[in-house]
User: Fold these one by one.
Assistant:
Number 1:
Amino acid sequence: MLRTARRFLLFTLKGLVSVGLWVARRHHGVPRGAVTVPYSGAQTPMASVLLFTAVLELACVEVLLRAFGTPALVRVPLLVAGIYSVVLVLMLMAACATRPHVLSDDALRVRHGTSLDLRLPRERIRAVRRVRDLDAGPRITVADGVLTVPMASQVNVEIELDGPVRFARPSGEVAEAHTVRFYADDPGQVPMTWRQPPSKVGGLDMS
């Protein structure tokens, strides 16, 4: 119980930090000279609808409860829950927008909001492939050594490694994967080969 409460508080704290970064138009964990590879574009339409629905529901419930003279003992907890629902959607949107994948000279950092942060050293990457999977599922999964990090149930980049890497799953458990599949708004930002040093990172000329 205590562990669950701690994880919830940490999730909320990271989410609120993400909202602050989003408002300030800043990214988290992007070193100088690195390339950000956004992935949140696929979820923006649905997330925007959810945000609008949450705000509308919050307003309607509050108006109706006041109109029927509902006591504060009932109304206030529902109001707090409604406000948190709105903030939750904002936190999820902000976390993905401010924590993009990061491509630097020595590694590819694959992320999914505050749920996953996996660093793939350049020397461990064996192959980079373009894939098109529109039915990858809504959640991060690991099966047979393949880590799937979807966005809006889509993945379009596959990284094959020279062996398994260990990482922390969103649940906190440690797992291993030798292949990582994820989504990028522009998969062309991830170079197909890293045989030569990426001397033109800013221009995305990395082959």
Note: The first strand starts at residue 35 and ends at 37.
Number 2:
Amino acid sequence: MNINFTFKNFEPSEHLKKYAQRRFEKLSKYVGGKEDSSELNVNLSVDKYRHRAEIIFTGDKLHLSANETSEDMYSSIDLVLDKLEAQVRKNREKSKDKRKGSKGRAKPVQTQFFQYSESEDGTKERKIVESDNFEPKPMSIDEAAMQLDNLNCDFLVFLNSELDRVNVIYRRKNDDFGLIDPGT
């Protein structure tokens, strides 16, 4: 990792340079690799009593920035490093989730049961009788059919493990099963 320092409105001590170098080298563990082409631009400046640290971190498919101001340059460096580490961790987790995809994870599903009744003036009114939120379980179509057979229900919402999509299997009037697959 290549670290570039820029100092504005003050002459840094050797101790500050070494301290900042040592602290910012920690970020290399997040991007690592044999051909590490990441670059860290560190801008440290002093305006009256404000000590400001600004960082721009670029790498392979990565561009992050953070800045922090305090009354001490050492604490500004520590604070901005914490911010940047949090961003890098978040970015790494996001990319891990993308690689894994949504396999095995489905969004929660909400089911509502309605009941219709006639009002005094002859119009039908819809009333919610029951509402339920749940996460569909991943299973094959055959497993879902067996589950529906064992349950005393008219339908079952499940995560189709072969297609990685939410499907609905339902019991038809002739006791056969029907399948609803919303995405194709």
Note: The longest helix spans residues 73-100.
